[in-house]
Design a protein that fits this description.
39% helix; two-stranded antiparallel sheet; mainly alpha; 16 helices; single chain
Length: 414
């Protein structure tokens, strides 16, 4: 394939060749500094032959996405390690830092938001960056190849599959050569899964079977499957909170994460937050947890919902996990109905729209309503009013409304 010098590569991608000559960072520099560098020189620039149309240069594959992917690396590394992956157990803290840096650069050379045809270019840019910050040649090549081959699906029954090997000659010229595909190494799997799970932001439905963790671990491990499912719901919630979901984009919120300080702000969304137990526990400040600690971790709260505990926050979360927590959005809660409600003593009062919804939801057979109709004792909870089941990351269209906690015997009907 094309052999090119670093200078020719920079010219082709229209990157300032002085960028890497002025970098003062090292591998030991905080990941937040590497993120700021990636944003300043790459993700803050619009794609080639594209103009910047708003405040965010790369809306779907910008630094906010790259930062989340980088922060998921330690989560997946610890999850693989928890479930006995020897490859993950062999990863060192130094390796993990390099994989996180690689994740920051995995979309750096994209030229649009459609299908990624530039993984190899992003791999070369990462290689040059790692060399600039003092990384060993062989390790830099290994990580560049992990980006280029993160989506390669090895199948022993199809030996004609190909992947790419980065070749660098004595003069510094770089080229990609096709080689026979091989099973993914842990570098590829971690980058693939961290990138894949964040595609939730661009899909109506997320297919978890694409995750290498599912194929290799969770598919045949019920505990790992539950943990993976919970992680997906937490990631969906984080994406929603950062204004980056497909259904409801909030550029004004997203701008806070599309910047040089975006990584720290992104992590602060869920770190040390009980609502994100798997993310906050397995992130571990971007590091690896001891195997003994991982083996003893109970990441899923399988305590059943207890009606006697009412609206206590953890009990509500359990209700939500069991599909018993619903919402009904109201656009104008304080709006007043044109009709007045008649009390038992004959008094007629104005009634808010929220009050009407609550009153109609509370109807029970045999209890007369304020209606003058003959069937006023034959109404039961207005079961045909639309409601939404809540889960991590789900959103209601209005900003206000009602929470409905369904009794177990009502679940099927609701």
């Amino acid at each position: 394939m094309l052999s090119q010098t670093p200078e020719a590569f920079f010219e082709r991608k229209r990157i300032d060749p002085q960028v890497f000559k002025n970098i003062s960072l090292t591998v030991q520099s905080p990941l937040t500094d590497h993120s700021a560098c990636a944003f300043e020189h790459f993700y803050s620039k619009p794609y080639l032959n594209h103009d910047k149309t708003g405040s965010i240069a790369r809306f779907y594959h910008g630094i906010a996405h790259a930062n989340r992917v980088a922060s998921y690396i330690s989560v997946f590394a610890n999850l693989y390690k928890k479930h006995g992956s020897k490859d993950a157990s062999a990863v060192t803290d130094d390796d993990l830092k390099l994989i996180q840096i690689a994740a920051l650069f995995h979309d750096s050379c994209r030229e649009n938001d459609d299908k990624d045809l530039w993984d190899n270019d992003s791999g070369i840019l990462l290689y040059l960056y790692l060399k600039a910050i003092g990384v060993d040649e062989n390790k830099a090549i290994l990580l560049a190849e992990a980006i280029a081959n993160k989506d390669v699906e090895y199948d022993k029954d199809h030996p004609d599959q190909k992947q790419y090997a980065l070749k660098v000659d004595a003069s510094g010229k770089m080229s990609w050569e096709e080689t026979n595909a091989a099973p993914k190494n842990i570098y590829q799997r971690l980058i693939h899964d961290a990138d894949c799970i964040d595609i939730i932001r661009a899909r109506d439905h997320f297919d978890a079977t694409y995750l290498d963790f599912y194929k290799e671990v969770a598919k045949n491990n019920s505990i790992a499957l539950d943990e993976m499912a919970q992680l997906i719901t937490e990631v969906r919630s984080v994406i929603e909170r950062q204004g980056d979901s497909k259904q409801i984009n909030h550029p004004d919120i997203k701008e806070k994460y599309e910047c040089a300080k975006g990584l720290a702000r992104s992590i602060a969304t869920w770190q040390h937050n009980d609502q994100y137990k798997i993310l906050s526990t397995l992130y571990n400040n971007g590091g690896l947890l001891p195997e003994s600690t991982l083996k003893s971790l109970r990441l899923i709260d399988d305590t059943p919902y207890d009606p006697s505990k009412g609206l206590e926050i953890n009990n509500l979360r359990r209700a939500m996990r069991e599909g018993k927590l619903f919402s009904r959005g109201l656009v104008v809660v304080s709006g007043v109905s044109a009709k007045k409600v008649t009390l038992n003593d004959g008094t007629r009062l104005e009634e808010s729209l929220a009050s009407i919804d609550i009153r109609k939801a509370k109807r029970r057979l045999g209890v007369p309503t304020s209606s003058s109709k003959n069937d006023k004792e034959n109404k039961n909870g207005n079961l045909h009013r639309s409601i939404s089941m809540l889960s991590h990351g789900s959103a209601t269209f209005p900003d206000v409304g009602l929470l409905i906690l369904a009794k177990p015997e009502h679940n099927q009907r609701q």
